[in-house]
Specification:
Helices cover 70% and strands 0% of the residues. The protein is mainly alpha-helical. It has a domain at 12-68. The two termini are 72 Å apart. The chain crosses the membrane at residues 79-105.
């Protein structure tokens, strides 16, 4: 519900409290439900009088389409894009990782020797640090 009031209106507090009470007691919800029920009943009466028109036939056809839908479980075809994107992302990450390794050790083969030594020392429990 919207009520337009002037800025700093003396009626703001009273209208605000009344609307708050109406909302708290559920009157808006009840009014909305009553309005929808009334409009549905009135619409059905109008629709029954329109049985030979194109509007009735189109609405009837749409209602049959909606009611005839069957619910199917997801199949593999629903997940093809998800699986393909995961596989493509993994492939791209692997290529990037191999590229980093080649780039890192391709410039200076001595680095490979140092990395091997560090891995060996770490496995034996000896921790030495040497700058690459």
């Amino acid at each position: 519900m919207a009520v337009a009031l002037q800025k700093r209106s003396k009626h703001f507090q009273s209208i605000n409290s009344i609307v708050g009470r109406i909302i708290e007691t559920g009157q808006f919800t009840k009014w909305r439900e009553n309005t929808v029920a009334y409009l549905k009943a009135r619409g059905l009466v109008w629709l029954k009088g329109q049985k030979e028109t194109d509007v009735y036939k189109k609405l009837n056809h749409l209602a049959e389409q909606l009611n005839s839908r069957t619910i199917k479980p997801f199949g593999l075809e629903n997940f093809v894009v998800c699986f393909a994107s995961i596989l493509l992302g993994g492939l791209m990450a692997t290529v990037a990782w191999v590229g980093e390794i080649v780039f890192f050790f391709g410039k200076n083969p001595y680095r490979l020797k140092i990395v091997r030594q560090r891995v060996f020392w770490f496995a034996r429990g000896q921790f030495k640090t040497e700058k690459l």
